[in-house]
Amino acid sequence: MLDIGLLRTFVAVIDSGSVVAAAREVGYSPAAVSRQLARLQRRLEVRFFEPDGRSIRPTADALAFVVRVRPLLEEASRFEEFSRRFSVIREATGVGEAT
């Protein structure tokens, strides 16, 4: 199973066009973002970025992958919000507590 954090970092790099800018966005160092990208690429056995001077350019595989990843991350965010609200409701109502 893929780590949601890796996918979020991948999308941040795609959106920002830069490892450094993505690192600022996700709160990691550029080196950590590069390691995450390398891990994701190894895991999927694909190359998502190519060097382009001092920056990187997404490959066709990266652009195809991000189309599928975005809805997954949106749903994960909705589920995280639901989970937070569910926990608050459980605490407020006592639902699920042992009797």
From TrEMBL:
- State the UniProt keywords alphabetically: DNA-binding, Transcription, Transcription regulation
- UniProt keyword Ribonucleoprotein, yes or no: no
**Gene3D superfamilies membership:** Winged helix-like DNA-binding domain superfamily/Winged helix DNA-binding domain (1.10.10.10)
User: Domain HTH lysR-type, which positions?
Assistant: 2-59
In terms of PANTHER family, this protein maps to: HTH-TYPE TRANSCRIPTIONAL REGULATOR, HTH-TYPE TRANSCRIPTIONAL REGULATOR GLTR
Q: Which family does it belong to?
A: Belongs to the LysR transcriptional regulatory family.
Annotated protein name in UniProt: LysR family transcriptional regulator
